[in-house]
Specification:
Alpha-Beta Plaits, nine-stranded mixed β-sheet, Structural Genomics Hypothetical 15.5 Kd Protein In mrcA-pckA Intergenic Region, Chain A, 7 helices
Length: 249
């Protein structure tokens, strides 16, 4: 639990789903108390180590670092807020409410993004260092995708993807990727980069089109097959500690 003195509204926003504006309204409605005394300002300072803070009688406690995996369905974008589209944070808020769980929605970071129409594994965390370890350009982290294409897949693509693909508007080929063909239109692709729309652009460069794309793993963290689309769970300590990246030489 944090021991430093901090503003009441910052503490609640960091350790709950309440936004700063919502906290201000709760204070105005006299629904927040510190040590059973109703507060009248969101800007007051508290010491979380010794003060008891409640909202509608429910104690708000400091949450430790949070690590989640989400099975993202189509139609959601990987952002914290968006004026036009529902986000993965919106989805988590809905699911957390159903599970009656408090999540620090305001401080969650998306660890590597997926397109709106791409499904599968999305990692989220409050730990910025862990996020950086996975997504930093100096890190080598394999992402595994299940791909379905519009046109049949030629066996020669395996070597072509290994050699690297020159994407449109790029001057350098992609790093070696591992393509495994499972059927006329189905394949698994492993890449270690995160260029904009990279998987779709790689197949487009070969004259094909991706019609379905699903991320199955990030490094050694695999999507839990028991999670239905839209569901999430906390990572296990073993998953958090996995050596999911290497550092570029």
């Amino acid at each position: 639990m944090p021991k430093e003195v901090m503003r009441l509204d910052k503490f609640i926003a960091t350790h709950s789903a309440y936004s700063r504006s919502a906290i201000a309204q709760l204070v105005k409605a006299k629904r927040i108390a510190v040590n059973t005394v109703t507060v009248n300002k969101a800007s007051i300072h508290i010491n979380p180590a010794i003060d008891t803070l409640t909202v509608d009688g429910r104690v708000i406690t400091a949450l430790g670092e949070v690590y989640l995996m989400l099975n993202k369905p189509e139609g959601y974008i990987c952002a914290n807020k968006d004026a036009e589209n529902p986000t993965v944070i919106d989805l988590l808020a809905q699911q957390a409410q159903l599970q009656q769980e408090e999540l620090p929605l305001n401080t969650l970071q998306v660890v590597g993004r997926l397109d709106k129409d791409t499904t599968g594994l999305v990692l989220l965390t409050t730990n910025g260092d862990w996020n950086h370890r996975i997504t930093a350009p100096s890190s080598i982290c394999t992402k595994t995708y299940h791909v379905e294409t519009a046109n049949p897949l030629e066996a020669s693509l395996v070597d072509l993807f290994t050699q690297g693909i020159l994407l449109k508007n790029e001057t350098k080929t992609t790093k070696p990727a591992h393509l495994k063909i499972h059927g006329p239109h189905q394949a698994t692709l492993e890449i270690t980069e995160g260029k904009y729309h990279q998987v779709k652009r790689m197949f487009a460069a070969t004259g094909n089109k991706v019609v379905k794309l699903h991320r199955a793993a990030v490094g050694n963290i695999c999507l839990d097959t028991s999670l239905q689309a839209g569901e999430y769970r906390h990572l296990t300590q073993a998953e958090i500690s996995l050596p999911i990246t290497q550092v570029s030489p």
